[in-house]
Design brief:
This protein is globular. It is mainly alpha-helical and 260 residues long. It is built from 10 helices and 4 strands. The protein has one domain: Four Helix Bundle (Hemerythrin (Met), subunit A), CATH 1.20.120. The chain has a two-stranded antiparallel sheet with strand order 1-3. The chain has a two-stranded antiparallel sheet with strand order 2-4.
Length: 260
């Protein structure tokens, strides 16, 4: 019964995550969903900025703290290790739900692109960003990243082993393609309002800080292997001529969004 409960917990957390991610696409892009970055009840400017910033900081703090090894060691004394990742995902979804319901639009237009071809191009970059996020998650190990692999291993009675990461595909060009995808999705706006600019600016700052923290962890864990990879591969933007030529495996598990 405990194994079945663990499996159902992992599956339930994953389903909630999928809904939250789809809503995030609509929320950022101001598409379809009832409440988006530009469509919420009006609020006084200062209150809107303070509220939105606090919501984004809550997201960043949760990701940074819960992704750290020291926190996990203490946290797994309270929750089963097999449920640790699914719990992380579930807490992320709760914070995203707060973001969706409590966000206050700041509709002042910062820039607007009127040319139809340019607007289509911006929408294409937006879609490409989310596609890169999804592809990157599978290159890491999508089901491990979002907790299903851990709960499945518990269900079938096998010990959990972290996935072995190989430098291939997008990871030959940049160390953090998942982050690159998020940045493209955040900034590809044919109409950029002050509210979306706040969202993009705060999350971009968080991403750049989180990468530095994560890379310190990766260096501490994998030493020279990751140091060599970091020297030969750019962080976010692909740089011609700076590309890893070997696809030798590295037993690292990148903690990118949604883990930071």
């Amino acid at each position: 019964m405990a194994r079945l409960a663990m499996l159902l917990y992992g599956v339930g957390s994953y389903v909630i995550f999928l809904f939250s991610l789809l809503y995030l696409v609509g929320f950022v892009g101001d598409l379809i969903v009832p409440r988006s970055v530009n469509r919420t009840p009006p609020a006084e400017l200062t209150r809107a900025v303070v509220t939105n910033t606090l919501l984004l900081l809550a997201f960043g703090v949760q990701h940074t703290v819960m992704a750290r090894r020291a926190f996990k060691q203490r946290w797994t004394q309270l929750v089963p290790p097999a449920a640790e990742r699914s719990t992380f995902v579930l807490v992320t979804c709760i914070i995203l739900a707060l973001l969706y319901t409590q966000w206050r639009a700041v509709p002042h237009v910062v820039w607007q692109i009127d040319a139809p071809a340019a607007r289509i191009a911006m929408h294409a970059v937006f879609a490409a960003g989310w596609a890169i996020v999804l592809l990157s998650s599978f290159l890491i190990d999508h089901f491990d990243l979002f907790g299903l692999r851990q709960t499945w291993a518990y269900w079938i009675g096998r010990p959990y082993t972290p996935p072995v990461f190989q430098v291939h595909s997008l990871y030959r060009w940049v160390r953090h393609p998942l982050m690159l995808g998020f940045l493209l999705a955040l900034w590809a706006a044919p109409t950029m309002t002050a509210g979306r600019l706040l969202l993009a600016g705060v999350l971009t700052t968080y991403i750049l800080i989180a990468i530095q923290i994560e890379e310190r962890d990766l260096l501490a864990t994998h030493g020279q292997a990751y140091a060599d990879y970091r020297r030969s591969t750019s962080m976010i933007l692909p740089i011609p001529g700076l590309r890893r030529t070997s696809a030798a495996p590295e037993s690292r598990r990148p903690h990118e969004l949604p883990e930071s």
